[in-house]
Amino acid sequence: MKNLVGFIKVGSLGLLIMFSVSACSIFGKKQRVSSTTGAAYGTRKSNLGFKPYDDRRLPNPPGMVYVQGGRTVLGSFEEDLYGSRDNIERTVTVNSFWMDETEITNSQWREYVFYQYNPQVLDLPKNIEIENPNSKGAADLAEPPEPFLPDYTGPTHSISSPKMMEDIIPDDNVWTSSFSFNDVYAENYYSNPGYNDYPVVGVSWRQVVDFAKWRTDNVNLSLIFEMDFEDLPLAFQEEFIVINETTGDPELAIGGQIIGDNNGEKQVISVEDFDDFQQEVVEFINDPLNKREFIERGIYLPQFRLPNEAEWEYAAKATIGTVYLDENEEYGRIYPWDGRSTRNPFGKRRGKQLANFKRGRGDYAGIAGNTNNDGSSIPEKVGQREPNDFNLFNMAGNVSEWVFDTYRPLSFGEFDDLNPVRKDGTGDSEENYGWQSSQVADSISYNPQLEYRSLVNDRSKVYKGGSWKDVAYWMAPGTRRFTDMDRASSTIGFRCAMISIGDDIKK
Q: pTM for this one?
């Protein structure tokens, strides 16, 4: 930890911040006091007094870009071909947030699967060593460390939510069909390194929510182990850190009991014990009371999550490029770029297609040898096309994307006009669509006979944007579709979002 190595000392940067905001007296004494009571604030060295933790500049979330919020008109500017009237234009305000620059890729999903069975690398002090059977001299030891071989046929290592491998990997069967030769992608699209940077598909809404939870835990675990010892909550210190009475060095523990072995110079921990330690830490920091303490200290990023429908649509339209100084929009956008065409109207790239989509019946890529043939008959590498005005790539075409919202055709009628979202069927019960609600997990379980009913229920989740298999109509950000939260497709992927804390961003 910046490290657990810096447990006993206060960093020079921390001192600089402390002194720069201290109140000064005519005697030269620096002391921070409350403007409410006049009482002295507590310090790191004192257990007495209220401690108002200073504003801490959290790091920008990895892989994300900042989307400045504001007023916008949501809804479809395209002709309503289906006559659904399920996204009528309305004015709302969306707060600032972060969003992934690109869709989540196969490589990033495989990283997620890997860390369900293996510990992550953390910033540890020099006196703590993780056993490495491949290290120099390991084979010469009296008891050489055994290689760590995770059991990928067993459950994941999560204490509170273990899953099996088949629950977390994408469904390759989304590529199979009795009437196409796309089955070759079932073996290669997710697993082959040649598709590393292609958007992951075959993942359900529920799987994506689990991914976002893991990503939150992974990033915050790293942040915690980069902190000075004194910055961490006392309960965390007592649970997971023990100071060696002989050397004064910090050592890792579970429940206050040191793990691994100490050879007099270093604490040596097996990979299995290190993995158990991390899982215990994750459980600790996810307890609501413990999480609050980390948040109060400014050392905990907000959760990664699916963007809600309003955020996604706002980010896709990116109308910041269409606004005059008087705050009037010059025009709305049918697509995430200027113009009514799917082709680039400007410069040397004039005429190039701006998205990967299906141009017409049977036409996925154009004619071979033509300058406009992009070779993208299936999803392509993320970031290949021009970004929109928020610097977000592939907000139209390539793959459609899951969003958080539960689908209802007339949701706009109940939405708030600030950060609108539909979390569930409140105000428009699934009973209105032929389902009987109950206190069980969901209406599908309550209706096992599966008689004919509407497809709209509390499991129906929205996905946005056109895909490689869709015609241009579906690339308009205002169009919306839905499917069951446990269904996967070769055309649906996702990206994550995160709330923005404060008014500005770290440059």
A: 0.88
pLDDT of residue 371: 60
User: What is the rounded distance in angstroms from the CA atom of residue 484 to the CA atom of residue 486?
Assistant: 5
What are the two backbone dihedrals, phi and then psi, of residue 360, each rounded to the nearest 5 degrees?
Answer: 180, 180
293 φ/ψ angles, rounded to the nearest 5 degrees: -65, -40
Rounded Cα distance between 70 and 72, Å, is: 6
Q: What is the pLDDT of residue 340?
A: 79
- What average pLDDT does the segment 86-112 reach? 94
Residue with tokens 């992927």: 493
Look up residue 386 and give its two tokens: 């021009």
Residue 258's SS3 state is: strand
What's the first-to-final CA gap in the chain, in angstroms? 24
Q: For residue range 396-434, list pLDDT tens digits in order.
A: 999 999 999 999 998 777 788 999 999 998 988 888 887
Instruction: Tell me what pLDDT residue 15 has.
Output: 36
Give the CATH fold of the 65-105+304-507 domain: paralog of FGE (formylglycine-generating enzyme) (3.90.1580)
Rg (CA), the chain: 27
SS3 71: strand
> Picking from 313-322, 332-341, 370-379, 480-489, which range would have the lowest pLDDT averaged per residue?
370-379
Residue 109 has pLDDT above 60, yes or no: yes
CA distances from 346 to 84, 329, 335, 373 (A): 35, 21, 16, 18
Half-sphere exposure of residue 201: CA atoms within 13 angstroms, side-chain side: 27
256: pLDDT strictly greater than 80: yes
Q: How many CB atoms lie within 10 A of CB 370?
A: 9
pLDDT on residue 19: 37
Task: Assign 288 a pLDDT band (cuts: 50, 70, 90).
Answer: very high
C-alpha dihedral, 116 to 398 to 75 to 504, nearest 10°: 60
At 401, the amino acid letter reads E
* Gap between the Cα atoms of 392 and 196, Å rounded: 19
Residues in the chain: 507
Question: Which of 272, 259, 160, 255 has its CA nearest to residue 217?
Answer: 160
208, β-bridge pairs: none
Q: Can you give the pLDDT at residue 97?
A: 96
**Contact residues for 31 (Cβ-Cβ < 8 A; gap 6+):** 22, 23, 25, 40
Lowest mean pLDDT among 6-15, 356-365, 447-456: 6-15
Q: Are 74 and 313 in contact (CB under 8 A)?
A: yes
Q: Which residues of 424-440 are buried (b: 16+ CB within 10 A; e: fewer)?
A: ebeebebeebebeeeee
Tally of CB atoms within 10 A around 47 = 8
Rounded-to-integer distance, Cα 8 and Cα 4, Å: 9
According to CATH, where is 3.90.1580.10 located in the chain?
A: 65-105+304-507
